[in-house]
Write a structure and sequence with these properties.
By secondary structure, the protein is an alpha/beta fold. 26% of the residues lie in helices and 27% in strands. The chain folds into 2 domains: 234 residues, TIM Barrel (Alpha-Beta Barrel); 201 residues, no CATH class. It contains 17 helices and 32 strands.
Length: 580
Amino acid sequence: MKLTIETLRKRIDVAAKRTPADLVIKNGKIINVFTREIIEEDIAIADGFIAGLGSYEGKEMIDAGGSYIAPGFIDGHVHIESAMVTPAEFSNVVLPHGVTTVIADPHEIANVSGTKGIDFMLESSNAIPLDVFFMLPSCVPATLFENAGASLSYKDLEQYYGHPRVLGLGEVMDYPAVMNNDEEMLKKLEDAHSKGKNIDGHAAGLNADEINIYMAAGIKSDHECINPEEALNRMRKGMYVMLREGSAARDLLALLKSVSEHNARRCLFVTDDKHLDDLIKEGSIDYNVRMAIKEGMDPVLAVQIATLNAAECFGLKNKGAIAPGYEADLVFISDLRKVKIEKVIKSGILAAENGIIKDPAPASVEPAPAILDSVKIGSLKGEDLNINIGTGDANIIGIIPNSIVTRHLLEKADSLNGYFQPNPEKDYLKLAVVERHHLTGSIGLGIIKGLGITRGGIASTVAHDSHNIVAAGTSDVDLLAAIKHTASMKGGLAVVQDGEILAELPLPIAGLMSDQDSSFIFGRLSELNHALRTVGCSMEFNPFLTLSFLALPVIPELKLTDRGLFSVRSFCHINVEAEK
């Protein structure tokens, strides 16, 4: 709400007790994130903002019944597209979990649809209960070693900085461009700095000297830490460390070992990429808070990390605390240690109760035709999938369960006439990345170990960050069937066996998001999980999540793009057949 003389006068009058509040919350235990104590006072709300704490009367009253009241949780870094729902449906899913504000980076849809994708995310997140702020995609494409759907220059981005919900430049993942003073990257950084905007980092695998370069460039956060040493190194240099617990990247337990009473103010919680089924079953930032408390963190400190820290990191001056002048975003918690959420109030209005959204936000924006027709591939034949490995060792992608980091394995795989032959018993499968934006016909091929499928194949158009079709299979027949069916749906996920489709989830919006509600998507995800078990997957981890990051050439160690096998250590493509 825009602050006017009228709203300011009303807020002052309510604070001074000359005018009754719109709403007063009584009998609550307020979690004060400034002083890290629990206080018992009334909360007076006027026009969606807190006017005062103390003893108040109002037009309406809510009896908190002794519940703890926390500020609304803030997700400091999330890709909404990874939940495979539109922003409106995302709001319906996360608000019951106490998340009232998110900082989103739309680089998934931007890699597919460019500025049309950014426009869609801005428009479709307008006038929904959830506050959605944005960091502009800094690296589209993520690297020059793959074919993405779009390319965004600093000139493409500068038009968005005047938008009230654009806070800065999103995760800068092209470290070589920063280190080597790439002109285009410098212009993006300069533009953000000149407008007083934040700049997020993506410092996967960077050592202490390389962090110096990031910080010198004004990049002040990182969500890619995977161990306590990396986290401490970044905090010591003044970075905000984003403690991530997503679906594929589950780093929180390891990173909590680096957090202490002395450095916790440099930390915030994020989900980054979290699938819809995990959001529904586990939660969002409330899950991070719950895990931190379970690992021994003081509950009030965990709430501070989830609220005030995130707000201060992004300069959200009216969010992250329960205090006069702050937005009335409140979470009622009956059991603080278990983070059992009873009610969620957004801008002074009851938004969710006992896990149920009160007034679901409807999808109100129709995507542009180009966004709905984003999957284009030519004809594919079995011979297009041949991988020449000779008779020696091969460079193989080794999967680490529940991690987006992979190992670079050098092992001997089965071959016939010099061509790789999948061997499910040894867990060697064929991996393909098929360009799907510009009909280039580009296909990258590789070998993966550890996916855990013993028959059939799977394919998806969710393949970070360029989102080409990524597919893995035990035979070329199933690999081809999965790829072609995914393309025929205009994007989505598919499981096949013996050439037959066992389960599917269409994702027609840029090949990333469904136009259906969360219950429909959750049902289809359940069918996909059943089909994965049918093709022999033990479900120790979700193969689709793992698959979606195997094409991301900025995460160590070995990945596959549509142009071939990519070594992140040497930052170049290499042959599948190892050098003798």
